[in-house]
């Protein structure tokens, strides 16, 4: 029993890791205050769920979940290209609300608030991941792949252009770099991995509805990125593990489940406040949040 | 090499650049001088695409670059130094300089697949750029760890490293020590010997007049005089408008 609980937590940590690492790419490295990240997560979840519910194999569904989310990332980068800071945050936040409204109201496709039940567990080339342990193995493989690719991006010269764009976009342009293209790629790649995480989530929980993808779901991911430190993958990994596991002891204290949810939010908000006041770069951050 | 005609830019009711026109010759050092608010930096911003003109044309090497973006202008061979520090503070000096060498670093897939390697040629260029300003020991320091003068030298070095035919330098010696001024002066003269064309804004008259082959004087957004340093020194209009005599 306790093993099942730990496996469940490990899977959640894995899904959050992909989400947080991909947000780190856009926010920490490219400097894009993207509050639309949860919308890409939702798009990935719905795309993958709808495809597999219509008989498309999981491997194609998860890839398309990433690709379609990336497509929306590119699209979002077009109108938001010239926006910075608070304005970009607001515009991307609006995107989250738009996607939420679509999942809620396009009932012929998403069944609206009724959600999509019966999403099949993953199966790749006849290999089933229906048990939680096997799902954990699949999650670990995808987390490692995501980490490797994102690390490869940020360590490459392209990653340095991302950081240059974050630090001083005008100076980057004057050195001949097309920062619109660079920011679009960053947002698209970030959205790709958020879509992959969404697919994993949908196939793990086997049921999704619009309430899984509200702005409230973004708070822990933002906290992870800021507390771990901007432009630090190591910080993101450590912060994900700590922040996802930290509220868990509340379950054993005997609080009712209706209290545990808000308590988690309060804990995240408190930690975030303390970090912003006393350690604005987070634990391992290279840059401060402006 | 660069021809500006009838260029105008208004900010609200202020005419920052007012029907301004001049041209600069290849392999010359041209100084753009004028009192504060005469429109020098706005002209630089217009030429480098940082702000868009209200009217007028900018022709560079027979190409109309008036409506080009800053990156397009940079890629035509115009490299610009800003008045305020534009160093990437969270990158190392080496990374700052590498960014200027080419645009291979913007190719996503090439970088993902590790095909944009740090070649010996790039290493050599960075090394030479740092040797030129005698700052080899700063290679791995972060931009934010440098003093103002050191940042200025690195930025000049980065501007030079950015592939160019025309260098536009906005107050390269502002706020630097006399020793560094001499160093920067030597660097610019050396670049001219190697065939570079330089357009510079400078408030230090001695520096500008000693270095420049030609001087253009702006006042209230328009050219009031143009000539050799000696001609400018004795120009009545300049003395009245610029030196207040």
Describe the structure.
- The complex is a heterodimer of chains A (290) and B (245).
- Chain A has one domain (2-214).
- Chain A is built from 13 helices and two strands; from the N terminus they run αααααββαααααααα.
- Chain A has a two-stranded antiparallel sheet with strand order 1-2.
- Chain A is globular and about 55 Å long.
- With 290 residues, chain A is mostly helical.
- The longest helix of chain A has 28 residues, at 2-29.
- With 245 residues, chain B is α/β, with parallel strands linked by helices.
- Chain B has one domain: P-loop containing nucleotide triphosphate hydrolases (Rossmann fold, 3-Layer(aba) Sandwich), CATH 3.40.50.
- Chain B has helices spanning 40-47, 70-76, 93-101, 108-112, 120-132, 148-161, 178-193, 205-211, 229-233, 236-241, and strands spanning 2-11, 14-24, 29-33, 55-60, 63-64, 78-81, 166-170, 197-201, 214-219, 222-227.
- In chain B, α3 packs across α5 (120-132), α3 packs parallel to α6 and α5 crosses α6.
- The longest helix of chain B is centred in the last third of the chain and has 16 residues, at 178-193.
Total number of beta strands of chain B: 10
The greatest interface here is: A-B, 29 and 33 residues
Question: Terminal Cα separation of chain A, in Å?
Answer: 45 Å
CATH superfamily of chain B, by name, is P-loop containing nucleotide triphosphate hydrolases
- Mind summarizing the main beta sheet of chain B? 6 strands, mixed
Top-tier CATH class of chain B: Alpha Beta
Strand/helix succession of chain A: HHHHHEEHHHHHHHH
Mean pLDDT of chain B: 91
Q: How would you describe the oligomerization state of the chains in this entry?
A: heterodimer
Strand line-up of the largest beta sheet of chain A = 1-2
* Morphology of chain A: globular
> CATH topology of chain B, what is it called?
Rossmann fold
Give the termini distance of chain B in whole angstroms. 34 Å
């Amino acid at each position: 029993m306790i093993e099942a609980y730990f496996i469940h937590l490990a899977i959640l940590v894995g899904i959050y890791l992909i989400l947080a690492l991909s947000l780190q790419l856009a926010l920490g490295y490219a400097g894009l205050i993207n509050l639309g990240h949860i919308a890409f997560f939702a798009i990935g979840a719905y795309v993958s769920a709808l495809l597999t519910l219509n008989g498309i194999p999981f491997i194609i569904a998860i890839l398309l979940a990433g690709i379609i989310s990336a497509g929306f990332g590119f699209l979002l980068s077009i109108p938001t290209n010239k926006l910075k800071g608070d304005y970009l945050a607001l515009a991307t936040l609006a995107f989250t609300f738009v996607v939420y409204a679509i999942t809620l109201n396009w009932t012929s496709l998403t069944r609206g608030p009724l959600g999509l039940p019966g999403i099949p567990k993953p199966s790749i080339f006849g290999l089933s991941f229906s048990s939680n342990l096997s799902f954990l193995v699949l999650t670990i493989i995808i987390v490692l792949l995501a980490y490797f690719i994102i690390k490869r991006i940020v360590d490459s010269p392209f990653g340095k252009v991302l950081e240059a764009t974050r630090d001083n976009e005008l100076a980057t342009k004057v050195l001949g770099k097309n920062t619109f293209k660079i920011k679009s790629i960053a947002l698209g790649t970030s959205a790709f991995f958020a879509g992959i995480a969404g697919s994993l989530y949908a196939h793990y929980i086997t049921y999704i509805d619009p309430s899984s993808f509200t702005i409230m779901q973004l708070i822990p991911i933002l906290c992870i990125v800021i507390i771990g430190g901007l432009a630090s993958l190591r910080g993101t990994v450590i912060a994900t593990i700590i922040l996802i596991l930290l509220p868990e002891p509340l379950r054993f204290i005997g609080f009712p489940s209706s209290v545990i949810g808000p308590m988690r939010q309060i804990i995240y908000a408190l930690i975030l406040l303390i970090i912003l006041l006393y350690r604005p770069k987070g634990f391992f951050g290279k840059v401060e949040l402006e | 090499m660069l021809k500006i005609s009838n260029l105008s830019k208004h900010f609200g009711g202020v005419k920052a650049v007012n029907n301004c026109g001049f041209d600069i010759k290849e392999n010359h050092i041209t100084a753009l001088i004028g009192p504060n608010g005469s429109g020098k930096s706005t002209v630089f911003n217009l030429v480098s695409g940082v702000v868009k003109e209200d009217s007028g044309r900018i022709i560079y090497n027979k190409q109309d670059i008036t409506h080009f973006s800053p990156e397009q202008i940079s890629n035509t061979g115009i490299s610009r130094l800003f008045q305020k520090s534009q160093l990437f503070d969270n990158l190392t000096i080496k990374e700052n300089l590498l960014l200027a060498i080419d645009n291979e670093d913007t190719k996503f897939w090439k970088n993902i697949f590790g095909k944009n390697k740090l070649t010996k040629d790039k290493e050599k260029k960075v090394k030479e750029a740092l040797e030129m300003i005698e700052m080899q020991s700063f290679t791995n320091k972060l931009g934010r760890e440098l003093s103002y003068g050191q940042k200025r030298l690195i930025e000049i070095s980065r501007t030079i490293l950015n592939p160019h035919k025309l260098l536009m330098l906005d107050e390269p010696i502002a706020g630097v020590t006399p020793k560094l001024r001499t160093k920067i002066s030597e660097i610019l003269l050396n670049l001219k010997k190697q065939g570079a064309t330089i357009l510079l804004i400078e408030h230090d008259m001695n520096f500008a007049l000693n270095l420049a082959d030609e001087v253009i004087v702006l006042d209230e957004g328009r050219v009031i005089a143009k000539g050799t340093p000696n001609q400018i020194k004795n120009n009545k209009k300049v003395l009245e408008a610029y030196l207040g005599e």
